[in-house]
User: What shape does this take?
Amino acid sequence: MRKAQTAIPWYVHPAEAPQEWDWLASQHPEVAFAVVNVHNGPGHGDDEYYPAAVARLRPRVRLLGYVRVDYGNRPVADVARDIDTWRRVYRLDGIMLDELPSLPQSLARCTQYAAAARAAGISFLAANPGRFPSRAHLNLFDVTAVFEGTAKDYTGFHRPDWARSVPPSRLWHLVYGCTPGDIDAVRIAAGNRGAGYVFATDRFLPNPWLGPSTAVSARLTGEMVCP
Assistant: This one.
C-alpha cells in the first residue's frame, strides 16, 4: 500500500482566500507541486495580487503555470505567449497544459505545444487530458493527469495494461466530489493504481479546484461546516 503525493490545481485568488494561500505555503513538505491559474492562464501580468502572492509562495512550493490549449484548437503561438508570460512575469519554470487532446491524430499538435514549452526554458512540463492518452503523448511530458473526474467515476478507473510499466512519477489523478471521510482512501487508491501524484477533494463542479477541501477552508476561516 502506498499513498500518492499531493499535487494541487490551485485556482483560488489570493485576495479572496489569503488563509488558503498561507495554508498551502505551510504544506510544502506534503505538496509536490501546485498549478496556479490567474485567468484561464497567466492573464496579462497586471493583476494587483497574483505576482506578489506567487513570489512569496514560489520558494516554498513548486509552482506550475496554467495554460489552456482547448483540445488542440489554440494556436501554438498563443500557447507560447502564455508560457512566456508565466516565465517573464512570474518567473516560473513549470507549466501545466490543460484540455490536452488525447486521440492519436493529435500527437503532432501536442508535440508542437511541448516543443514550444521546452524552447521557452520550461524544465517541468505537465499536461491534463483527463484520461490516458497514447504512450507517445505521455513521453512528451514529465507528468500527465490521466484521470479527472468524480469519486464515483473513479471507482471504475482502470489503467491500460501497457501503462503498468510507466513510473508512478509520470502519472497524476484528479478526483473531486469525494465525501470528506473518503479523501484519504482516494489518495491511497491512487497510489495503488499507479499514480505518483493525486489531488482528492470534496468540492464539486463547476470549479472543484478552489483550494483545499471545504473542511480545511472552513477551519482556516472559522466557518461552520454541516456534517
